[in-house]
Amino acid sequence: MKILVGISRVIVGILFIISGLIKLNDPVGFSFKLKDYFAPEVLDLGFLVPYALLIAIFLVIFEVLVGVALLLGYLKKATLWALMLMIVFFTFLTFYSAYFNKVTDCGCFGDAIKLTPWESFTKDVILLVLIVILFVGRKYIQPFFTREIRSILIFIAFIGCLGVTYYVLLHLPIIDFRPYKIGANIKEGMTVPENAPGPIYEYKWKFNSNGEEIVITTNGEYPQVDGELISTETEMIQEGYTPPIHDFTMERDGEDYTEQFLAEENLVVIVAYSLGNTEKDGYIPIKEITDRALKNGYNVIGLSASSQEMTEALVADYKLNFKFYFCDETTLKTIVRSNPGILELDNGTIKQKLHWNDAQKIQLPVVENAKPKLDLSLKQRLDSISVLDQKYRNLMQARSLEERKTLGEKMGLSEAEYSGDLAKMQSVLDSVNMIFVEKYFIEKGYPGKSVVGEESSLVAWHVLQHNPDKIPLYLPLVKKAAAEGEIPKTSAAMMEDRYLMMEGKPQIYGTQGMSYDDARGSFIWPIADAETVNERRKNAGFEEPIEVYAKILFGEDFIYEPRTMEQINQQ
After folding, report:
1. What are phi and psi of 117, to 5 degrees?
2. Which of 140, 455, 500, 566 could form a disulfide with 5 if both were Cys (CB 3.0 to 4.6 A apart)?
3. Which residues have a Cβ under 8 Å from the Cβ of 414 and sit 6 or more positions away?
4. What are the start-end ranges of the H helices in 346-448?
């Protein structure tokens, strides 16, 4: 019994210390896991959610100290009761989680060792048995050292835990066990290997054979049975390979930019998973280092799960010179334990990752053959114009007054604004925006991506699109910018087609369509040399042939039929 107690003492003590230290390395991550347990569908302890981080810190430090106390033989009775109460609670919790499939990862060993719910429960049962052995044979637990030395060692362990906690909360985890650690490639992390195992399904086939119901179970193949099939039930009995990185996206305005940004060589990403509880002080150093990054030839973007209205308000408040894109909140919390946090990516590989407290430590050498320094003040002005360019247009899409009111209040508009003549108010803004853009056109040309960055290069184009009377004057400037790579060729092509349609002439690339409520219906505006339009579209950068593009405009049931100007004029 003495030997059994000694072995149990070492195993339990070391496991508690290792488990506690792993979670102590990342208390923020453990607090996220506690919030999962506090959720309404699990333990329904929502009142504890605001205190999740404090509870996490207390639990992990207590876990380490209990493990140390057991090995030292410090306060034997109190230590054993603490161990027993903890393991009974966690055994119940892991059983509840596994049986009802509530939380798929207990977080017992943080991100270092992933356990399924039933594996977690089994681990706790084993620990429970070992702790019962310690209880029964507690007379064999002899203390080490004198009482004073044991107290000093416990105090040192406590201070050490506090020091580690303080460091990782103000910086980042000392060891990163997550798939987004420095050196990891996000694209490779999302890839499923060719020979990766797929999911295994079990099929239950119910047949009526000679008036009798029979059920045959297979893994997919149709059973050879004489009879009529009644029903089939499918159950996945083994999951297939899941890549370590999933749910990672970079989206904005309904478009996916993930592939584009993961292919960039010099990209700085600001992660702010939730603007509702972000550290506002962090955006002061972030403003400084992102401006420096832009000047040194880097592209800069933000990632957040918050709404576009909230991110644009943040950008305006702190005069940030980059845009935010959407990404899943859980994914962003996994990427970096700082809100906001900083990443540097090179073709999808994470080169640097920092807490906002360490923003000044980021290394941003001037990129060789970098594009010219951006005009940050102009970029900021254009980004503000971009917001005004859409201010009332979004409201004009509202299908009811109530929906318009909801959107208006969300945007911080007064009742007079969201209930007024939206088209007239937007027209005023469009005219004011055009005054600034036109002045720049005349003095310096088109403000393309070499001047204001790729994300702001199309602001002037949108302003011009919304002032069609100015298109004839500045279309040559837009075409020149496209030829020089300052804006996409597709943008110049769309504007040229729009101009030709306004002039009552055939378009070139087939980008413009018309819809009427009468017999004319919907159609693609006549195209010059319609037979070769797809070749021109391809040369201009359009991916879809005209037949597919027409369906995008007018719906899947639409069939493209070329029309001539004579047909249009006769209608």
Report:
1. -55, -45
2. 140
3. none
4. 376-389, 393-396, 401-410, 415-418, 422-444
